[in-house]
Design a protein that fits this description.
With 350 residues, the chain is of the alpha+beta class. The protein has 9 helices and 7 strands; from the N terminus they run αααααβαββαββαββα. The protein is rod-shaped and about 115 Å long.
Length: 350
């Protein structure tokens, strides 16, 4: 027996039991409680259970649960009155046949029929309310699942965008080397092979460790170092535990942007500094590069991609910023540490 069916029968037995118990107490107070009264109450109890199940059958088998209230209410009222009238006929007939009593007055018959029909209508209202709440809850769950699925699909699409973009830029670096320095190009191809293998593997994950991200960044900078030689220098600083889970390519995208729109534009090149640290309740990932940030300049899909991923995953609990300061460009991502842990935990448990 399912959980919902078990709950139904528990409520069914208890509710009608309480009603018959109240009638029994009233009979006791009036001094009319006897063995015969007990038998009549048992008969009433069983009939109420049976007839309320008929209403339940109508709700399920006749699809009353799908009807609008304007169509449902007349059906429930009519069926409840018919069943309560039948209930009174059965109890009155059994009183005459088994207990040798006379027929109850017609007015009492009608009043009791209306009273029991009211109880059955109330039962129907409770049953309907429960199912409407269940339906609403299931609809909400389905909507959340659909929304989550759409979000995951968008995140996957955003991650999938990064690999071709990343590969294209890396191949451009090697192409430039082949024309200038073929020997260095061979070394770059080896580095690129390792870099692509790691990036493809990490790109399939929703979250990776900070250590994995920093290794990816280091490999990428080694590749660019082969291309730019003395024009590029870099420093990597990572204070927090490297087991912290973050979305892949967050830091790498900022570094790639810093080289493409910063260092590569300067004749003498420049320096890339990557700082990862905790400030108050936030994880900060910062990239500093020589150059100047121009808001009107197109910075490609990398930064747009990063902003959108942060928005989907963390909402208002994360953000991206970029500014000029003392002939350098400061770009940074901040993520609330608590939210960061929550999201990575949710991902690992789905």
């Amino acid at each position: 027996m399912g959980k919902h069916k078990l709950l139904y029968w528990i409520v069914q037995l208890v509710a009608w039991g309480v009603l018959c118990g109240i009638i029994g107490i009233a009979a006791f107070v009036q001094g009319e409680l006897s063995f015969r009264t007990g038998l009549k109450l048992m008969e009433l109890y069983l009939l109420l259970i049976f007839f309320s199940n008929i209403i339940r059958w109508a709700f399920i088998k006749r699809s009353w649960l799908n009807l609008k209230l304007a169509s449902l209410i007349p059906r429930v009222v009519t069926l409840s009155f018919l069943l309560s009238t039948l209930l009174m006929l059965i109890t009155s007939l059994s009183t005459v046949i088994f207990y040798g009593e006379g027929w109850i007055p017609f007015s009492e018959f009608i009043i009791n029929s209306l009273l029991y029909s009211l109880f059955l209508i109330m039962w129907s209202a409770v049953y309907l309310t429960y199912h409407l709440l269940q339906k609403s809850r299931l609809q909400e769950i389905n909507n959340l699942r659909l929304q989550a699925s759409q979000t995951q699909n968008e995140l996957k699409a955003l991650r999938d965008q990064l690999n071709p973009h990343f590969l294209f830029n890396s191949l451009n670096s090697i192409r430039a080397l082949i024309e200038i320095e073929p020997t260095s190009a061979k070394s770059a191809i080896t580095t690129l092979s390792s870099l692509l293998r790691n990036s493809l593997m990490l790109g399939k994950k929703s979250f990776i460790s900070l250590k994995e991200e920093m290794l990816l960044v280091e490999e990428y900078l080694k590749l660019e170092k082969i291309r730019y030689e003395e024009r590029l220098s870099y420093t990597l600083n990572c204070e927090p535990q490297k087991s912290i889970q973050i979305p892949p390519f967050l830091i790498q995208s900022m570094v790639e942007n810093a080289i493409k729109h910063g260092v590569s534009k300067k004749l003498k090149g420049g320096e890339i500094v990557v700082n990862v640290y905790l400030r108050e309740q936030n994880l900060i990932m910062e990239v500093i590069n020589d150059g100047e940030y121009n808001e009107r300049q197109n910075h490609g899909i990398g930064i747009k991609n990063t902003k959108r991923r942060l928005e989907i995953l963390y909402g208002q609990e994360a953000g991206f910023g970029i500014k000029n300061k003392e002939n350098k460009v400061y770009s940074h991502i901040w993520i609330n540490k608590k939210k960061l842990i929550e999201r990575s935990y949710e991902s690992n448990n789905h």
